[in-house]
């Protein structure tokens, strides 16, 4: 009987050891699976949702909101007949139907506003998604993390889609021309061109805070664009006298168009503060451009 009991005891010990070994293997497998999946999330955060990239995206969106959007027409020139049926090379904007072109500008403006809204919302989704995934990695225990894995995978997939959409929206797109912009009567029978419309951007004008200053009765203003455009275009410079509530006189202002990156304003009052504003001039093809830069200078 002692022999039988010894055999049973040995079998129990062997079974317990085997069970313990099996549980240890399972625990190790669970831990390895956790580490593998955790590393996948960390890799995703460090590549697709890199914090530096998100900060860069945020700066790009803010800059895009300050940009000026224009309607581009291709081709720039067409061949048309005059009243004597002589062929001439003509600027496309001179023969495009005015009303139809204005409608396309409205379409372009709407497209820009939708684009900027979508970019803002997508960036917000990316930033919140990064925080959510980081929270899973940093705070969840092994069991909770693995139980939420399917959701985490879906989240990463959705964020990848958001990122791809965000990147594609950063470049202004083409516009679908629904109506004919040039009539046969305008070209007097000449072959009508295949007109394509698209949106393009120009950088905002920004005052140079170091080079702009005021003296006794004059002020020198200087501005630039972030991409340092070599071709100077028309811009609108506005200034006004700042007054406080205790002053009876009303503030006055003046606007002038400048084709330069610098301007000197004469005839200012000594010891007074003036607000100067710079923006791009309104042109025939401008569809969107609300932002302007301002600087306040005080004469001596």
From TrEMBL:
It comes from the Eukaryota. CDD domains: FN3. Residues 205-300 form the Fibronectin type-III domain. PROSITE patterns: FN3. It holds the Pfam family DUF5581. SUPFAM superfamilies: Fibronectin type III. PANTHER family: FIBRONECTIN TYPE III DOMAIN-CONTAINING PROTEIN 11. This is Uncharacterized protein C20orf195. It comes from Podiceps cristatus. The lineage of its organism: Eukaryota, Metazoa, Chordata, Craniata, Vertebrata.
């Amino acid at each position: 009987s002692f022999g039988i009991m010894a055999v049973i005891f040995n079998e129990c010990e062997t079974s317990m050891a085997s069970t313990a070994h099996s549980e240890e293997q399972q625990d190790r497998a669970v831990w390895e699976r956790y580490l593998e999946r955790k590393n996948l999330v960390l890799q995703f955060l460090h590549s697709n949702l890199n914090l530096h990239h998100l900060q860069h995206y945020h700066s790009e969106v803010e800059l895009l909101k300050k940009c000026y959007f224009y309607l581009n027409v291709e081709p720039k020139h067409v061949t048309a007949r005059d009243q004597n049926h002589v062929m001439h090379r003509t600027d496309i904007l001179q023969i495009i139907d005015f009303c139809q072109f204005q409608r396309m500008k409205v379409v372009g403006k709407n497209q820009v506003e939708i684009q900027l809204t979508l970019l803002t919302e997508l960036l917000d989704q990316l930033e919140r998604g990064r925080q959510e995934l980081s929270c899973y990695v940093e705070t969840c225990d092994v069991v909770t993390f693995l139980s939420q894995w399917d959701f985490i995978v879906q989240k990463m997939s959705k964020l990848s889609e958001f990122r791809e959409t965000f990147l594609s929206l950063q470049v202004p797109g083409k516009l679908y021309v629904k109506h004919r912009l040039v009539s046969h009567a305008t070209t007097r029978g000449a072959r009508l061109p295949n007109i394509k419309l698209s949106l393009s951007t120009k950088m905002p004008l920004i005052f140079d805070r170091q080079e702009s200053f005021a003296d006794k009765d004059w002020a020198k203003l200087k501005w630039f664009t972030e991409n340092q455009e070599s071709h100077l275009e028309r811009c609108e410079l506005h200034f006004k006298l700042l007054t406080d509530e205790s002053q009876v006189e009303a503030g006055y202002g003046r606007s002038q168009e400048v084709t330069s990156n610098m301007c000197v304003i004469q005839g200012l009052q000594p010891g007074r503060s003036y607000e100067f504003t710079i923006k791009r001039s309104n042109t025939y093809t401008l569809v969107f451009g609300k932002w302007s830069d301002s600087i306040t200078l005080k004469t001596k």
